[in-house]
Design brief:
It is built from six helices and ten strands. With 329 residues, it is of the alpha+beta class. Among the domains are: 80 residues; 130 residues, Immunoglobulin-like, CATH 2.60.40.2560. The strands form three sheets. It has a four-stranded antiparallel β-sheet with strand order 2-1-3-8, with no helix packed on it. Strand 5 and strand 6 form a beta hairpin. Helix 1 runs parallel beside helix 3. About 4% of the residues have low confidence.
Amino acid sequence: MSFDNSPTAGSIPYRETHQKRTNWIPLLSTAIIIALMGTLGYTIWDNSKIKDSLQEKDAAYSMMMVEKDTLQSLLNDASMRYDLLKTVNIKRDSTISNQEMEITKIRSLIQNLLTVVHISQTEHSELRILIASLNTNIEGYKTQIETATEQNNQQVAAQLALANEEKIKEEKAMEKILPPAEEKLVEAGSTFYATNFVNNGLVESRNGKAKKTKTARKVDMMHISFDLEENHSTTSGPKELYITITSPDGSPLTIQAYGSGKFTAKDGKEKAFTKKIDINYIHGQDQKISFDWKQQSKFENGQYKIEVFNNAYKIGEGVCSFKKSGVFD
């Protein structure tokens, strides 16, 4: 018997087949790298936005505290004038007594509002209105006292001048034409108030135009502007303003060649000023003041404080903040 191993007709030979497989590892790695780069870019951008937001909040908080300090200073000056007037020894009628009650009420309201930690811009405006009302009442109170003492003005002037002294020498006071205390009242009443500070860094372009910038290394000059509120106690004519700019490190910016110098403040201390501005004031009108400050060195990043003085009193304060250059500057 024999066996035939040859394939029969119609049979199909068996072939082992292998399906080609795709290698996904390089593609997956590329996708992961792209995703990581996108995440990194977003993180850098987001951190920059957060930093800018924090800087803006810090600047807003600083401006709020500066505004509160200015309002407190205005209240203190008004209170000083009122307290000095109250030392006058006169017989108070019902009109004067009612005026004293009204002044005390407004002064207490202002002081209570100033104790609030966070004050909105609207509340700042309301406080300024209240302080203006307080000053108006004090002026009215001063007029009432002068009217009540019209028959003995010279003696009242002596009492105003020597109210804080331990011993009053009537003979010496009667010889004074304008006692220091009364002169101080007139001077304080005729002092301006500076408000609405707008301060920016400017970069000069080749075409002569300037544009705003907050980046310290780009700043070519600082532009400062503010309003002088109308003062009905101030006469028209030339007036002097002293501007002091304090750098982030606490030192005043002064360049003698640019007109910087020193003056004596109301507390008797000598104070450096950055720039002196002479204006021609028109009675009863608000006045816009603006100027540019350039310096020989670069501006530092941080907060610059701008103070304005008139009649040796500080009449207003603002800030100007510059930042370091960021990723996209």
